[in-house]
Every structure is written in C-alpha cells, then in structure tokens.
Amino acid sequence: MKGGGWGRWAAAGALALLVAFAVFPFAWALVASVTPEAELFEGGGGWPRRLTGDHYRALFTERDFWVPIRNSLVVAGATTAFCVAVGSLAAYALARLRFRGKAAILGFVLAVTMFPQISIVSPLFLLLRELRLINTYPGLVLPYLTFAMPLTVWLLVGYFRQIPPDLEEAARIDGATRWQTFTRVVLPLAVPGLATTAILTFIYCWNEFLFALSFTLGPERHTVPVAIALFRGQYQVPWGEVLAASLVATAPVAAVVLAFQRRIVQGLTSGAVKG
Amino acid sequence: MADPRSDDLRAERRFAWTLVAPALATILLVAVFPLGWTVWESLHRNDLRMPWLGKPFVGLGNYAEILADGRFRGALGHTALFTALTVSLEMVLGLFLALAMNRAFRGRGVVRAAILVPWAIPTVVAALLWRFLFDSEAGIVNAVLVGVGAVDEPPVWFINAATAWVPVVLADVWKTTPFVALLLLAGLQSIPTELYEAAAVDGAGRWWQLRHITLPLLRPALLVALIFRTLDAFRVFDLIYVLTGGGPGTSTEPVALYTFNALFQNLRFGYGAALSVIVFGITFALALLYIRGLGVSLSGEER
Amino acid sequence: MADIRLEHVDKVYPNGYVAARELSLEVADGELLVLVGPSGSGKSTVLRMIAGLEAPTGGTVWIGGRDVTRLPPQERDLAMVFQSYALYPHMTVRENLGFGLRMRKVAAEEIRRRVDAVAESLGLAELLDRRPAQLSGGQRQRVALGRALVREPCAFLFDEPLSNLDAKLRVETRAELSRLHRRLGATMVYVTHDQVEAVTLGDRVAVLRDGVLQQVAPPMELYRAPANRFVGEFIGSPAMNFFEGTLRREGAGCVFRGRHFEMAVPRAEEGSEGAAVLGVRPHDLGLGGAAGEGDGVLRAEVGVVEPMGSEQVVHLFAPGGERVVAVTRPDLPLRVEETVEVRIPARAVHLFRGSDGRRIPAAG
Predict the structure, then answer these.
(1) Residues of C in Cβ contact (< 8 Å) with B9
(2) Which tens digit of pLDDT belongs to each residue from A77-128?
(3) Which residues of B touch C59 (CB under 8 A)?
(4) What local confidence, expressed as pLDDT, does residue B20 receive?
(5) Strand, helix or coil at A141?
(6) CA–CA separation, B196 vs B185, rounded Å?
(7) Among A44, A36, A33, A32, which Cα is nearest to B146's?
(8) Higher model confidence: residue A269 or residue C354?
(9) Interatomic CA distance for residues B235 and B112, integer angstroms
C-alpha cells in the first residue's frame, strides 16, 4: 500500500513505539541485572546508583548456572540432530517421491504438531518411570521428539519442494540411483533449509518448559527454563539473579535469531502462508 | 501390454517407504501411542498417593467427576477468557503492525529483528520479565503509576484475579504478536501491488483499498494465524505457571495447569488422563472447525 | 548408437487425462527425429517415456533392440538436454560435465580426458572451474550439451533446448546442433513446439496432436503432402489457407465448389465426394496478373499489407469475411480496401475430407 507523507510518518511512528515496547523489558531487565539487590527493592524506576556484577557472578558460582546450560545444550542438541537427520529422509520422500498415502501422512504430521503437550504428559511420565529414565538426558530427548520430529518434517518438506525437480531427473538420466540423487544433488542444495530448520528446532527445544518440568527432578538435570523458573531466594524472589540468568539464557538465542532472521522468518511463514 | 506399475515405480515406492519409516515410527511411538495410553488411563482410577488401591477400571467415572468439578469449569472459563483476550488483541495488533511494516521501507529489518526476539525467548523468561515489571515493589509499572500520581499506594497486581490478568495478557501479547505480524506481513507481501495501483487510478481511497483488496486477499493468512494462535492460547501453561502459578488460589488457572496439578500435585493419574483427553478433544474440535472454515474460504476464493 | 522404437505406447494419467494414444514410432540408428506439436500435444511425455522418467500405461519401448519399458532411467544409457539445462548449481562446470561418468564409476583419468575433450570442442575450456550461476545463458546451454556428450550414450534426447535462448543465439545454436549431428552420426530425438526448428533440424519430423501421431515424414514431404488438415496448418509459415466447400465428380475430373469460387481439381479417388476443405499455401497464391488455365479465382479485399523486405505478406478478406493470407513479391503495388483477384493454381491445391480432415489423395 502506497502512502502519502502523513501515512508514512504515522506508520513510522507507530513502528517506533512498537519497537520500543518490544525492546523495553529487555532493556529494563539489563539495567536491573546490574543493580544491587538492595536498591532493587527500594521501588523500581530509579537508575542504579552503582553498578554491580554480583548477580552474574552469583549465577556461576553459587548457583552453578553452567549446569542447566549444559543440560539444555545436550538435550536440545541431541533432539535437533536426531530430528534433522531422520526427518530429512522422510521429508524428501514426502516432497518428491511418488507413493500412496502421502497426503494422509502429511496431514497426520501437521495434526501431531497441534497436539497439546499436556495430553501426553501422564503416559510419558509413567513410561519413563518404567524405563527408569526420569531425570536423565534420554528421558527428555524422547518426549521432545514428540513435537520436534513433526515440526522438522513439516519445515523440511517445504524446503525440499523448492528444489527444481528437473535437477533430480537430470541426475537419474546421468546414471545416479535414487539414493545417490538424494545425497549428491538434493541434500547439498538443501543445506540452507536444513540449517534454518535445525535452528528453529533447537530454539523450540531450548525454550520448552512443561516436559522439562515434569520429567526432571533436581538441579543436576534441570534445563535452563526450569532452573530460572525455580530460582528461590531466602525471603523473596532474587530478581537480580533471576534477570541476570534470563539474559544469559536468552542472549545466545537472540544472537542466533538476529543473525539468521531473514531465513527464519521465511521458514516460519512460507509453510503457513502456502497452507 | 506393459504393467503400468513398472519396476521403477515399485522401486520408488519401496525407497520412499524406507525413508519415511523411521520418522513415522518415531512419531507414532512417542506421540500417538502415549495418546492412546492416555485414553486408556482415563478409564481407570490411578492415584499414585495410594498405590495399594491398584488401578481399577472405572469406565467414564473420571469424566463424570470432571463434569461436576467446579474447579474444572473455572479452568475452562479462565482458558476461554485468556484465549479470547489474547487472540483478539494479537490479531488486531498483529495486523496493524504488519500493515505498518508493509508501508515503511527503511528500517523494516530493524523492526523485524526487534520483534523477533520476544518470540524467540523461552515463555518462562518472558513471564519473568513481565512479572518483574509488575512487581509491587521492584516493578517499574508501579513506580510510574505512583510517580504520575495515578494511585497513592503501589497496587499488588497478583493479589486478585482481575488485576492479575493484566500482566498475563500483556506478556502474551508482547511475546506472540510478532509471530502473527510476520505471518500477516508475508501474506500482505504476496498481494500484487498492481491491484492497489489500479484501484488508486480508479479513484479508490485508502480505506476502500483496505476493506476491498487487502482484507479479502489476506483471508487465508488471517485464518492460519487465527488457527495457530487459538490453539496455542488454549494450551497455555508456561506463562501462567510462572506469572501467577494459577493463583491467587486457582483463580487464574487454565485447563493445562489444572491437568498438571491433578497429575503432579494430587498424583491422580487417571483423573489427569481424563482431563488430558478432554483438552485434546477440544483442541481437535477447534482445529477441525478452523480447517473447515479455511477450506471453505479457499474454495470460495476460486472464482 | 542405437535405434529407438515405440510400439503402441499409451499414457493415461490417473485422473483420466490421455497424453499419448496408441503411439508407434521408429527412430533409425543415427537419425535425428523431431517431435513437434502445440503445447499439450504429448511430445514431452513421449520423450520422457523414452528416457524412463515416465512409465507408459501400455505398449513397449525399445532401445537398440532391448526392451527397456521397465528399466529406470539410469540403466538406459541415454543422455538428455533439458529446457532449463538442469545444471547442478553447487558443482563446477567440470564436475557437472563429469557427473554421469562419476556415477558410473569410470576411472578418474578417463573422466578427465573426456571432459577436457568435450570442453575443448564446445569452447568451454576456460570455464571449467566456474559455477553455473557465473555463466551466461548460451554458456549454460553448452554445458548442458557437453554433459550429454561426455557420456557417449547410445542416443540423445533434447527437450526444447533452445526455447530459453534469444532469437539470434537460437539460430546459431540450431546450426551448431545440426553440424554436431552430422559429425557424430548420433541417434537424436528432439522435441520442440517451433515448426521452423522442426523442419530445419530433422531428418524426419513427427507431428503430434493431443497424444496422437499425425504424420511422420521428412520435412519436405510434410510441407508438400500433409496427411491431414492439422499438419497442413501446423507446418509452414504463414499458415495454409483453408476454404470449406464440396467436391463433386464432373466428367473426367472433379470440381471443388467453395463459397466464393469454384475450380477444377485433379481427379480424386473413389468415395471422396461430399464435404471437403481446400487448402492452399500463401506462397502459392497469385495476386495480379492473368489467371491461368484451370486456376480458381477469388475476389477479395486487401486488408493489411505487411512489408517483410524480401516479400510482402498480404491479409485479404473474402466477401463473407473469411481471412485469406497471401505472400507476394515485395514490389507488387497494393492498396488497402482495394478488391483484387486472388489466383489459386490447381497444381498447388491440397484437398482434405470435410468430415475428419484427412487428405484426399489423387486417383490412380
């Protein structure tokens, strides 16, 4: 929509406001995270009289924040690796090969992404308890596959569809078997899509809360979201440390998202807009 | 007469199934099988606090109890309220944001980056940030309100349900509007500019263009956004767990949190399973409704 | 090199669409056969069935005496040049050229030798380390061609390889392909929708319409003796003129009566009487000058005169509004809206049955 001068300014103004609204909580949290505890409770709003790194230091010394970070990395990493590896095979077949039941499987995959997680928490808990996997890494990766696998497949199908089909035909005429066509021609061209899918899947796993809360018992296996949510202070919520932890937890995610924002937005919206 | 299903096609089919099998098996195993188990569980009484009672089959007994359960009805109400408020706000705000981003040429990247970050962080963190902003002593909202003299005493937002919803809704809007906006923006960008140019040449004003070109052509994207947001809002858990814990008491408890509490606080796994099934059923019904609506809308557009 | 044979090939899609019907075709060893037809005629489908990218629903495909109907593409020893070139974007030109050989586990030395030789002959030697994205359209086309040549297959398939080139390049490349064919003596099947390409390149041309083979013949025969009205209209530019009418036996010969003229035509075979269509090519019509013995004469009004430099294309309108196109020498003076006499020479006339468009052959 083309705008006249007034329209353009109003749009810009509105956008500026919205950007401020989006950024403000972070900015404020950043300020608070370097404000001494005592000052925080004097009534927020004032600029700190002195800055302190106490909260950040406490994170890594008293609270061993490395542990949840490591846990999240392992779980999210393992889930993503597995889902992208296995999912890319299925996605290629769904995108390019001819076989019956394709539409049904695609619909099924989409339906599973809409599963309410809470609905499978109880059987998963009982199952994991049977297998003695409560509070272990596999005990989280397994439930994470529930949402990560269909998500990965769904995203990758979109990417594989974009690869021109006559490249595969040319490869087959050139003498490549189907598997060779997939590995030598299609996969190399799908690398950007694979990377974006991996990033999105990793983010979803990193941010996951319900399963992590339900299937871990103690700080040694808590993931980052659970660890932060359960920070307990002696009398009240230790806001300084909580906010410091939040920023530490989200800074890498934010950095990755900012670096790949164009691809991420494309990946998120193309599947949805095309339906 | 050659066999139409030549060897080659059969080989392709075999190859395809080998590729699909691992992922499909995984999904069936970790998602579908537990769902079936939940249904089975829901027909039994399984109180983990009293394991000596065993797991007697009670048929639809749990469901009957749920229907009579006031706390469940409350949870449904809270969920409905949350869904209605957040979805409507996010759709409107998202559309507004998308329209504005579609117009402005410079700085679109900055805006997109800025709004992408709230979407990307864990809901838990978002909840904590907003909890902090609304904290009665350390929070800036109260500082501002007192500072400008709107109130004498800093209000305690989380002490009663009505005021507790404010930070909850705000936090969700803050976190999820970006997704809606980006989705709608993609939809907007797929509308050919020639339509607007032709309308402008014909003398149509901005409002007319919005009503007769933009909104109708945006309908599929709007519906998709609506589906995703409604389903997500219905399943809300992380946000409320951290912001209010469902409280005070259970006055802001949504269905997902109630189920969680039934399972892990009260350890009533049969009952929790029945709740899970109901949540799934409602989600499924909503999804069906929307998809049918989307299908009708799409086929109606093919004129 | 090998010959290619299609026997009674059908292709019916699950939704009922018929792309090819009872198609039987032979391509001799070393021949360049062109498949031509309007879009939707099934020519690409036929090519893909030869390649193995699509399976026929009926009939058999033979290559070099082998029944390949059920063989996948990689086992047919064919090479194909695609309309979009289908170059592997992530590989260099050298890797693109050598891909087929690598898949067949040919020794690296041999691959290098063949790739260098082909690159040399196509003028690609300097570009071997570039990626497709860094090449021009013409260069990409040559790489696609080179990839096929390197394989030294038993036959080549071309799917509208020139349609993405600009006009000048198209003409040049057409000549190159012709030269290449003569040099290699290779069996080639070439698909195009452009009838000019078809008649200039092909040893024989197969005209397709709606999945049915209309006529297979050397280009001149298609031009001079089209098997039906469709072929007559499709081959030759500007297209043949058609006049509806009736054919009657009169005395020793036949008479064609059209709406605005009648003329004697060579005696046609038994049973040809009835509704008929008379076709005559624009180049054969005469404007100005006296009518000869046996010529048909049509009075028409000059509509548009298009000067083409070496000739004039004249669009005329018969009294009923029917359009007639004639081609004359460039200096013939004509005025728009002037009514002229159009001569239809009896020797240049093509007769087709009114019912099904089939050619009416002369008697005896």
Answers:
(1) 55
(2) 999 999 999 999 999 999 999 888 888 898 888 888 888 889 889 889 988 9
(3) 1-2
(4) 93
(5) helix
(6) 16
(7) A44
(8) C354
(9) 26
Phi and psi for C265 in degrees, rounded to 5?
A: -130, 160
Structure tokens at B26: 């995984």
Torsion of CA A22, A26, A29, A34, to 10 degrees: -150
pTM: 0.84
Contact C300, C316 (CB under 8 A): yes
Cis amide linkage into residue A164, ω under 30° from 0:
no
pLDDT tens digits for C172-220?
Answer: 889 989 999 999 999 999 999 998 899 999 899 999 999 999 999 999 9
Residue of C nearest to A165 (CA): C86
Distance from first CA to last CA of chain A, Å, rounded? 24
Residue tagged 């062109």 (tokens): C34
State how far the Cα of C200 lies from the Cα of B54, in Å rounded to an integer. Answer: 88
Contacts of B52 by beta carbon, 8 Å cutoff, 6+ apart: none
pLDDT in tens, C227-278: 999 999 999 889 999 999 998 888 778 888 888 888 888 877 777 788 899 9
Q: Which helix (H) or strand (E) holds B243?
A: helix B238-243
Q: How many other CB atoms are found less than 10 A from the CB of residue C259?
A: 13
DSSP string, A5-49: HHHHHHHHHHHHHHHHHHHHHHHHHHHHHTS-HHHHTT-TTSPPS
* CA count, 13 A, side-chain hemisphere, C332: 22
Average predicted confidence (pLDDT) for chain B? 85
- Does the beta carbon of C82 lie under 8 angstroms from any beta carbon of chain A? yes
Whether residue B216 has pLDDT greater than 90 = no
Check residue B26 and give its pLDDT. Answer: 92
Strand partners, C342: C287, C298
Q: Is the distance from CB of A139 to CB of A220 less than 8 angstroms?
A: no
Q: Is C82 exposed, middle or buried (0-12, 13-18, 19+ CB in 10 A)?
A: buried
The chain-wide mean pLDDT, for chain A, equals: 85
Cα within 13 Å of Cα(C209), Cβ side: 13
ipTM over 0.95 threshold: no
B107 touches chain A (CB under 8 A): yes
Whether residue B217 has pLDDT greater than 80: yes
B251 phi, psi to nearest 5 deg: -80, -10
For C281-328, give the DSSP string: -GGG-EESS---TT-EEEEEEEEEEEE-SSSEEEEEE-TTS-EEEEEE
Chain C residues interacting with chain B (CB cutoff of 8 angstroms): 52, 55-60, 69-73
Nearest to B135 by CA among C139, A40, A202: A40
Residues 270-299 of B with CB under 8 A from A: 272-273, 276-277, 279-280, 283, 287, 294, 298
